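thread: overnight batch results

M.L. [08:02]
morning all. the overnight job finished for the chain we discussed friday. pasting input first so we're all looking at the same thing
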Amino acid sequence: MKIFFSHYYGRMSDVLGIINCGIYAEDVSQDEEQYALENGWIKLESPKYNDTWCQGRQTRIKNSELIYNKKIRKMLDPCHNIESCVKRLDECDKNELKTVYEQYIKIKSNQYKQSDEIFADFYTHDDFFNDLLIDPDYKKIIEYRENGKLHAFVICRTYEKTNAITSIQFCWDYHKPKIFLGKYSCVKEIEMCIDEGREYLYLGCGYENMCFYKSMYKGFEWWTGSEWSSDREAYRTLCRTDTSTKDIYELGQLEEEYTGKFFFSPKEIKNRQK
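M.L. [08:03]
and the structure it wrote out:
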């Protein structure tokens, strides 16, 4: 794999020097995908960047730690009428999927426009739905139906030589908002991984308050930039800070604090493990 960087912003005129850059990789072979996932990389779902992976605060769940405790059962019970089915992408009705997707985006757009967030702008561009459908040989769909009607689905990426599946996008028409179908779906995704002998379900990046939910499951871990951490409260604090940080000076202070708490070089990590 070849790693490269996008040095898109920096500031040296203040006491707090800041360098922001995107970190990417390309030419990741199937033999390297396991290493990439284990070290905080995620594959971009776009025809333009289909050979590109990016580095970020990735999240995952260790599937073997799933326990059907009281909290999980309470979450699953309202969905007892929902039928789930795992399919290959080429077995699905794309028009049916798009109908659910468009309803999901319509509802989410209204929610986020009211709170001045840019979620809606990202997900409503014309090509995003089609972007989700690239690499059909490595995509699986879990459909969620009630009385035969499709109400939700999740698209997942599979890999030839890894112990993991990546959850890419969940879409729901919100026909019954109180049943928390998205959380139900996460459990079903974990079960799919277990059935296939996969050790981890990767949930993508974890930024801002909207990603709190990813830390609610037993076995949750997040990528600090140098190692995987199971510290849920630290993750949630970072998500809250993502949302609340508004200016460049706060960003500079945050970088100093984060580096002191979570950044360790490979040598330091190796020494701590001795």
